[in-house]
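Friendly challenge for the regulars: who can give me the structure tokens for this chain first? No prize, just bragging rights.
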Amino acid sequence: MQERVYPLLTTAPKGVYVTFTKKTTNGTRYMLCTLNDLLIPLYAKPKGTGAGGPPDIVRVFDLQYNGWRSFSWGAIQHFKEKK
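First reply, four minutes later:
Bragging rights claimed.
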């Protein structure tokens, strides 16, 4: 799944809708998110390279919440580019 979603997250001009299972509640969550630098506000852009983290977790910028969130690649149920 990662190899299909990541390129879309980094290039989609309006973001990507992602549906995933929330680990703590087992509920379904929806998010319009991005890793496209052009869509992330200046105040929210990462200052450095980041601390890394587990390889199965991705941090994305939530375009509706205007903040950083994360989810597991394996938790993705569906994804679709915003048109």
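The chain has a mean pLDDT of 92. DSSP finds one helix and five strands in the chain. Your move, everyone else.
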